[in-house]
Amino acid sequence: MSDKTEHFYVSVKPQSRTSEIKQEDNLLKAYVKAVPIDGRANEELLYLLSRYFKVRRSDIKIQSGKNSKKKLIQVVRKGE
Length: 80
Hints:
Blueprint: E1 4-13, E2 20-24, E3 27-31, H1 40-53, E4 60-64, E5 70-77
Parallel strand pairs: 1-3
Antiparallel strand pairs: 1-5, 2-3, 4-5
């Protein structure tokens, strides 16, 4: 079995009332409660995405856009 790597574009809305992920066409929209200070919103985003894709938190990385609302996310699915 080999690892499968996928890439997704995510639009993030920090300081939302709820924390959730919604899919609209080829774009994921993430609503996070955390503020975008000291990487808190990114950490919450990665936690939400790990639950959404049912992978470990360490299997998800922000490829680009760490300081932007639009991010490119890499998800590695082990052993598929």
